[in-house]
Amino acid sequence: MPFAQIYMLEGRTADQKKAVIEKVTAALVEAVGAPRESVRVCILEVPKENWGIAGVSAQALGR
């Protein structure tokens, strides 16, 4: 059972997250031949103040 864990900054819409789940699932089905029913995708949203880029938070960078 393939399990994909996706970390993203908070702020994506429900439709965007739905698209990520659909496309990651399709990619795993195609790449490894896993049955669609066995694929699991977990999106973990990280607050912008908890995400660092080059030593600075994404929030401070205006991301």
- Quote the beta fraction: 25-35%
What strand line-up does the widest sheet have? 1-2
| Uncertain stretches of 5 or more adjacent residues | none
In the CATH scheme, the class would be Alpha Beta
The percentage helix is: 25-40%
- Number of folding domains? 1
User: Biggest β-sheet: count, sense, barrel?
Assistant: 2 strands, parallel
Q: Quick check: average pLDDT?
A: 97
The fold-level CATH name is Macrophage Migration Inhibitory Factor
What does the overall shape look like?
Answer: elongated
Structural class: alpha+beta
- What's the SSE pattern? EHEEE
Write out the CATH superfamily name. Macrophage Migration Inhibitory Factor
Radius of gyration: 14 Å
Number of distinct helices: 1
How would you describe this protein?
This protein has 63 residues and is α+β, with helices and mostly antiparallel strands. It has a single domain, classed as Macrophage Migration Inhibitory Factor (2-Layer Sandwich). It has one helix and four strands, in the order E-H-E-E-E. The chain has one helix at residues 14-32; strands at 3-9, 40-46, 52-53, 56-57. The strands form two sheets. Strands 1-2 form a two-stranded parallel ribbon. The protein has a two-stranded antiparallel ribbon with strand order 3-4. The longest helix is centred in the middle third of the chain and has 19 residues, at 14-32. The radius of gyration is 14 Å and the shape is elongated. The N and C termini lie far apart (34 Å). 0% of the residues are buried.
